[in-house]
């Protein structure tokens, strides 16, 4: 983290160090969003432009962003899985296993805090440093090899015109431009056209099945309390739009784990406490959005639940009880468990209805939108050696 903060100083991320005002390409960018939805906030030093978003898309899919040309962002964030990878934890450069489950990127521009449990990760520009240069775990492996990375990109004919178009005043690939183009592309990843949206916001009564309508009632019922944390337009209490007066940032301990008798908490599951140092933050993680959740299995910060039915079993029991295996323990007895994780008496039929509701949050147009798809031809060096999950 400390090393990332030093990098942040060098790219001039606002809030962490000097923010250099620059005049950037002012081509208009049209948000793909309906009237009822405010746009995500955009930092003053990284205005959206069509050229920048398109450059960011090429970078997102380009494995030359990794030290050995095998790992691109798409290696862990695949469009038709709502930009997750289907694994419990991802695999980075040289087969390095990750620590946390790869989150989806739908509507990621609305999240005021990025990643599962880092309260300091406040911008997409800053976050991009983590896969590019982070080494715990190694994802793209460029730590100490920045010059080679930017030289590879500068040699590409597409980038020789795309960087100047996106950044007329600073036309070369460098930390500033690469992180900003990636951020602009990710801010453009908007998913608000699920059957539930059409039912709820566009008045299409038959867009939802009867089971999903019953599931919606249960989701918003006090018996289940789901909506307390999975609240608002993206079903999370982590939200900031261009119209928000303040950012909502919810982290909760949902009773997945507990300390052993001696007071130790399972490694890699300490959550928010890892960075705040506050024992009350033990086991707290950011509430994930539930949009497209039917496609983002396995679930939770460590990918420890295989299916939505497993997730509902966990909430039914008011915390997780597992007798043996890597996730063994009795999270339901954790004194740190959030007061809203109360357990419930859902019948099998009610659980099926809640799952039907969660499935109605799948937005097919997002998963197939060509504006978010791989732009490179199959035999291009950007993708020739690229590993996909
Ligand atoms: C090796 C797999 C891997 C690669 C490659 C990778 N990511 Fe990720 N990504 C992850 C994981 C795992 C997390 C969650 C990390 C955490 O919470 O500690 C994550 C989190 C994110 C987040 C935060 C999402 C959220 O909901 O908070 C963004 C944004 C993101 N990645 C963008 C990118 C971009 C851009 C690239 C390419 C430059 C990239 N990722 C490459 C695995 C990967
Ligand atoms: C106290 C706040 C809270 C309540 C109440 C709550 N959740 Fe969650 N939910 C979370 C948090 C936090 C996580 C992430 C936990 C983790 O990974 O450690 C999560 C994870 C999930 C996931 C997995 C998503 C993913 O991408 O991995 C699903 C699905 C889910 N919740 C559905 C529900 C449903 C359905 C209910 C009601 C029965 C509910 N939640 C109630 C806070 C809450």
UniProtKB/TrEMBL annotation:
Residues in the signal sequence: 1-25
Keyword Oxidoreductase: yes
Cytochrome c domain ranges (all copies): 51-183, 210-362
Lineage top rank: taxon: Bacteria
Pfam families associated with the record: CCP_MauG
Broad class of the protein's primary localization: periplasm
InterPro entries tied to this protein: Cyt_c-like_dom (IPR009056), Cyt_c-like_dom_sf (IPR036909), Cytochrome_c_Peroxidase/MauG (IPR051395), Di-haem_cyt_c_peroxidsae (IPR004852), MauG/Cytc_peroxidase (IPR026259), MbnH-like (IPR023929)
Localization terms from the record: Periplasm
Keywords: Heme, Iron, Metal-binding, Oxidoreductase, Periplasm, Signal
Alphabetical list of PANTHER family matching this protein: CYTOCHROME C PEROXIDASE, CYTOCHROME C PEROXIDASE-RELATED
Descriptive protein name: MbnH family di-heme enzyme
Provenance organism: Gemmobacter denitrificans
Lineage: Bacteria, Pseudomonadati, Pseudomonadota, Alphaproteobacteria, Rhodobacterales
């Amino acid at each position: 983290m400390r090393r990332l903060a030093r990098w942040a100083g060098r790219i001039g991320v606002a809030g962490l160090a000097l923010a250099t005002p620059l005049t950037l390409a002012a081509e208009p960018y049209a948000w793909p969003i309906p009237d009822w939805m405010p746009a995500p906030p955009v930092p003053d030093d990284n205005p959206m432009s069509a050229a920048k978003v398109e450059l960011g898309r090429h970078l997102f899919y380009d494995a030359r962003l990794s030290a050995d040309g095998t790992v691109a962002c798409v290696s862990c964030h695949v469009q038709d899985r709502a930009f997750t990878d289907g694994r419990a934890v991802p695999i980075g450069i040289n087969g390095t296993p990750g620590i946390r489950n790869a989150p989806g990127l739908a509507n990621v521009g609305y999240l005021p805090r990025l990643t599962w449990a880092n309260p300091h990760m406040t911008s997409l520009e800053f976050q991009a440093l983590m896969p590019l240069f982070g080494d715990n775990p190694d994802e793209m492996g460029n730590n100490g090899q920045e010059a080679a990375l930017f030289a590879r990109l500068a040699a590409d004919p597409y980038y020789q015109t795309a960087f100047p178009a996106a950044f007329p005043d600073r036309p070369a690939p460098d930390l500033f431009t690469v992180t900003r183009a990636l951020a602009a592309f990710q801010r453009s990843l908007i998913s608000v056209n699920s059957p539930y949206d059409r039912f709820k916001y566009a008045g299409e009564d038959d867009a939802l099945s009867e089971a999903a309508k019953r599931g919606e009632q249960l989701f918003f019922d006090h018996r289940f309390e789901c909506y307390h944390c999975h609240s608002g337009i993206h079903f999370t209490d982590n939200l900031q739009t261009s119209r928000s007066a303040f950012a909502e940032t919810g982290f909760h301990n949902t009773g997945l784990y507990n300390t052993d008798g001696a007071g130790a908490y399972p490694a890699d599951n300490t959550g928010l406490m890892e960075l705040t140092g506050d024992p009350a933050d033990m086991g707290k993680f950011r509430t994930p959005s539930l949009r497209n959740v039917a496609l983002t299995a396995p679930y939770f910060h460590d990918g420890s639940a295989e299916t939505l039915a497993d997730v509902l079993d966990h909430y039914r029991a008011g915390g997780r009880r597992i007798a043996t295996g890597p996730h063994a323990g009795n999270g339901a007895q954790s004194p740190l468990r959030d007061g809203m994780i109360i357990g419930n008496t859902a019948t099998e039929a009610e659980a099926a209805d809640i799952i039907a509701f969660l499935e109605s949050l799948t937005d097919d147009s997002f998963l197939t939108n060509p504006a978010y798809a791989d732009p490179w031809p199959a035999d291009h060096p950007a993708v020739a050696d690229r590993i996909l999950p």
